């Protein structure tokens, strides 16, 4: 009986973080639901026990249903006929299982039939689902959209839509268009208000829409005629029951093949405004994307884990030259680094999730009552950290997922190139993670602000101030030296005040910061649990060399050399 | 239409992955070495019951199990998936029962429940593999039985008849029977649905009296401690799993447990399977064809 929660002690380790006490208290409003709902927790221990029990269910579904279905789903994929999508058989089975298990709307409040879980256990479920089948995570993870509907919709909309999501209806976020990908300001889908019917009508085309035949859509559309930028865009809710949107085609993709990526045609599709006009892109989609990026991080972590496991298993079973190939340094180094990258990615994922949890819970409370000055401080602090960690985490962990998938195939040798092993699917599935919800290059754009303003450095110095066990002193000293180097190169680059040059070196600086952050997170893991020692040692060795490389590149670089790089 | 459904389920030692210490020296099952699980085919039966409940709103699913106090776990597992309640038959007098004494005990409990349309259980339990208990319960209650069921296809309310697809040698057949009826379900039926997140949170503290009396804590599993959240059991009656003794079901002691069990175990042989012969085949069509022919010839398949 495979169970992806029980077979991976990392899950429990990250669930039981000291900050959880505060997160659960906020999320549960001091356990106010305990007599109102028969499934609400009585206290902190009870809540944690419930999270564990529910995560065990998720782990079982992942191990027993979703993972065994993954190969068939990848092979069969969804199909489209008469404007409607039919999922692969395995996808349908997966959806039935998660619906029956009541795993939709995990983070939604109980009054809308949700489980009212914090983001940490929700993301943990996403982590496991992704390890089982990254493509299915897209369908399941789109319940995130309910979060946006909850945050920005009105009471009536919340009541009409969120219980449907909790009951198992699926969602989609319709943003991208043929001419508006990374640059969403150019979205042209037209929203027209009809006074007679007192509703909006949507007309136009959306492209690359994940799960585009969903029951409930959030749609970014141009509501202000004559505008051309982001300020003319609003967010709408389209209910499939009303009709008006057809799927023209589904893309034939390289990976995540079970997740239908649709081209949608809106023909006088009746829709309702969500939130205020003109805030669609600048406020709501930005919030939606931040949530989605955390989801993609979880997807990357799940893939990294899966890739590591495939690589490790093959390396222990495959014998060459009279012994298992894992005994050769060239192979065991790869395996160790894969483990370290997966562990580091996971630590980053949950650190980020905790930051998001605290500030979102406080933000939600602020709608019910005035926050105290301390709470406002707390919210500001965690909101800033979440803002800094989300792009760094999304950028780094998705690259690591690709590297781990690449190495998993390398360990398999020729066999890995065949369709016989899961590693080739993992490799194809991982490839999208560093592209969608903002490419790594765009994550750097979002993260660089926190390099130049010192958010990362301040947080790294806080990690430095934590007391570590004496045997970890050596690792801590290495991290200190890495941080000093990071600080110096950032100073050297930023003091040029040359924006083009700062952009040119941005990714290197974000990566240097990330190596320090990831290293310290693993050091904290090792401080709590000795089994993380190896990954901490391996990662910090790796990160140290990477920071040296970055330092060398930046220190030896002449700004005039940019001319050799410019293409126009 | 609403149906009253009783699911017969058993807690069994997990014999699917037995190690060296699975049996004790005296030839009895070493229960300590094997985890206690929900008998797999009883889970298939539970799923059929829950599907009926989905299809006919207002129906109820009640679990009935016999075993020691910890077998209340079976009732909880049912509650986690959508069952409405259950009874645990538990008494020293029931201990050591063979299939005859077991079916007697179950039948007395079913008579006590009284109100039922369908009694459904797994074909057999993996600790005995007898497939006798379901049919014996039917005989004791004087009910029609359909064994090896794979799918309940329809319940006709007006005619009070049920249509069931059953698994037979070399195929399937569809049969019809009158309500009330006893059905045993084959492992080839649909697997049981997962536990439901909300129900797990609602029922996770449901316990029988014996479990409550000896509540273990995480740090001292063997030392009974004060029951956590004790106040909830009064406020939420559904957290108290009903236990029934011999007296509660008006059982005749001579027909229960060891004294009601005519089965005598003469000897027990410890058989260890060893791979004596093996063949290595290539993936060439010729090799595969030869293997198929050989397996057909010696009746391994077909």
From TrEMBL, chain A:
Its cofactor is FAD. This is Acyl-CoA dehydrogenase. Pfam families: Acyl-CoA_dh_1 (PF00441), Acyl-CoA_dh_M (PF02770), Acyl-CoA_dh_N (PF02771), AcylCoA_dehyd_C (PF12186). Residues 55-169 form the Acyl-CoA dehydrogenase/oxidase N-terminal domain. Belongs to the acyl-CoA dehydrogenase family. It comes from the Bacteria. The lineage of its organism: Bacteria, Pseudomonadati, Bacteroidota, Bacteroidia, Bacteroidales. Residues 452-562 form the Acyl-CoA dehydrogenase C-terminal domain. Residues 283-444 form the Acyl-CoA dehydrogenase/oxidase C-terminal domain. Residues 173-268 form the Acyl-CoA oxidase/dehydrogenase middle domain. Keywords: FAD, Flavoprotein, Oxidoreductase.
Automatic annotation (TrEMBL), chain B:
SMART domains: ETF. InterPro entries: ET-Flavoprotein_bsu_CS, ETF_a/b_N, ETF_b, ETF_beta_N, Rossmann-like_a/b/a_fold. It comes from the Bacteria. Keywords: Electron transport, Transport. Residues 26-213 form the Electron transfer flavoprotein alpha/beta-subunit N-terminal domain. Pfam families: ETF (PF01012). Belongs to the ETF beta-subunit/FixA family. This is Protein FixA. The lineage of its organism: Bacteria, Pseudomonadati, Bacteroidota, Bacteroidia, Bacteroidales.
């Amino acid at each position: 009986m495979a169970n992806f929660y029980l077979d991976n002690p990392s899950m429990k380790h990250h669930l039981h973080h000291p900050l959880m006490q505060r997160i659960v208290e906020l999320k549960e409003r001091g356990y106010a639901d305990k007599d109102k709902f028969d499934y609400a927790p009585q206290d902190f221990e009870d809540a944690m026990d419930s999270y564990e029990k529910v995560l065990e269910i998720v782990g079982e579904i992942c191990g027993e249903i979703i993972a065994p279905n993954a190969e068939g789903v990848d092979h069969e994929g969804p199909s489209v006929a008469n404007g409607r999508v039919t999922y692969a058989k395995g996808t349908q089975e997966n959806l039935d299982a998660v619906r029956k298990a009541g795993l939709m709307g995990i983070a939604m409040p109980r009054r809308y039939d949700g489980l009212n879980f914090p983001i940490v256990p929700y993301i943990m479920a996403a982590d496991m689902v992704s390890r089982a089948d990254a493509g299915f995570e897209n369908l399941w993870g789109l319940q995130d959209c309910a979060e946006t509907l909850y945050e920005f919709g009105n009471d009536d909309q919340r009541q009409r839509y969120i219980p449907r999501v909790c009951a198992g209806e699926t969602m989609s976020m319709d943003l991208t268009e043929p001419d508006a990908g990374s640059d969403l300001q150019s979205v042209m889908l037209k929203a027209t208000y009809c006074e007679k019917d007192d509703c909006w009508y949507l007309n136009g085309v959306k492209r690359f829409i994940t799960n585009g035949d969903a029951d409930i859509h959030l749609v970014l559309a141009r509501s202000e005629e004559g505008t051309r930028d982001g300020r003319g865009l609003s967010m709408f809710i389209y209910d499939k029951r009303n009709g008006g949107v057809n799927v023209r085609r589904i893309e034939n993709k390289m990976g995540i093949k079970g997740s239908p990526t649709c081209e949608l045609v809106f023909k006088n599709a009746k829709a309702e405004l969500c939130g205020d006009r003109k805030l669609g892109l600048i406020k709501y989609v930005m919030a939606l994307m931040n949530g989605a990026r955390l989801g993609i991080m979880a997807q990357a972590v799940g893939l990294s884990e899966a890739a590591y496991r495939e690589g490790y298993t093959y390396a222990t079973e495959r014998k060459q030259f009279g012994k298992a190939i894992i005994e050769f340094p060239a192979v065991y180094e790869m395996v160790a680094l894969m483990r370290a990258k997966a562990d580091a990615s996971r630590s980053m994922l949950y650190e980020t999730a905790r930051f998001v949890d605290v500030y979102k819970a406080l933000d939600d409370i602020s709608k019910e009552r005035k926050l105290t000055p301390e709470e406002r401080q707390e919210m500001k602090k965690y909101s800033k950290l979440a803002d800094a960690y989300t792009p760094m985490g999304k950028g780094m962990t998705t690259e690591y997922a690709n590297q781990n998938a690449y190495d998993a195939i390398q360990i398999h040798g020729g066999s890995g190139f065949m369709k016989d092993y899961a590693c080739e699917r993992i490799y194809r599935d991982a490839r999208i993670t560093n592209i969608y919800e903002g490419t790594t290059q765009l994550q750097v754009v979002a993260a660089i602000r926190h390099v130049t303003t010192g958010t990362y450095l301040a947080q790294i110095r806080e990690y430095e101030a934590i007391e570590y066990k004496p045997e970890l002193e050596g690792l801590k000293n290495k991290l200190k030296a890495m941080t000093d180097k990071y600080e110096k190169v950032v100073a050297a680059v930023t003091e040029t005040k040359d924006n083009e040059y700062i952009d040119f070196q941005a990714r290197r600086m974000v990566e240097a910061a990330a190596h320090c952050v990831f290293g310290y997170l693993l050091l904290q893991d090792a401080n709590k649990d000795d089994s993380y020692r190896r990954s901490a040692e391996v990662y910090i060795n790796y990160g140290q060399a990477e920071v040296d490389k970055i330092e060398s590149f930046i220190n030896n670089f002449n700004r005039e050399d940019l001319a050799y790089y410019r293409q126009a | 239409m609403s149906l009253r459904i009783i699911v017969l389920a058993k807690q069994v030692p997990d014999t699917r992955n037995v190690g060296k210490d699975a049996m004790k020296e005296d030839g009895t099952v070493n229960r300590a070495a094997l985890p206690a699980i929900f008998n797999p085919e009883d889970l298939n039966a539970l799923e059929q019951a829950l599907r009926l409940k989905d299809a006919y709103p207002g129906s109820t699913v009640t679990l009935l199990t016999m075993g020691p106090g910890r077998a209340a776990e079976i009732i909880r597992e049912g509650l986690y998936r959508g069952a409405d309640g259950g009874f645990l038959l538990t008494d020293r007098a029931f201990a050591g029962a063979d299939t005859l004494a077991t079916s007697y005990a179950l039948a007395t409990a079913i008579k006590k429940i009284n109100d039922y349309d369908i009694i459904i259980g797994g074909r057999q339990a993996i600790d005995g593999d007898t497939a006798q208990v379901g049919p014996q319960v039917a005989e004791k209650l004087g009910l029609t039985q359909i064994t090896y069921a794979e799918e309940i296809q329809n319940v006709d309310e007006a005619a009070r008849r049920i249509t069931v697809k059953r698994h037979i040698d070399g195929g399937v057949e569809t049969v019809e029977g009158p309500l009330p009826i006893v059905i045993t379900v084959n492992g080839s039926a649909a697997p049981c649905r997962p536990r439901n997140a909300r129900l797990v949170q609602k029922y996770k503290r449901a316990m029988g009296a014996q479990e409550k009396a000896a509540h273990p804590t995480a740090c001292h599993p063997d030392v009974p401690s004060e029951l956590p959240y004790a106040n909830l059991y009064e406020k939420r009656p559904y957290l108290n799993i009903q236990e029934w003794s011999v007296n509660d079901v008006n059982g005749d002691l001579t027909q229960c447990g060891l004294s009601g069990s005519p089965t005598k175990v003469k000897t027990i042989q410890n058989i260890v399977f060893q791979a004596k012969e093996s063949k290595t085949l290539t993936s060439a069509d010729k090799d595969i064809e030869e293997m198929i022919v050989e397996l057909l010839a010696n009746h391994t398949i077909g």
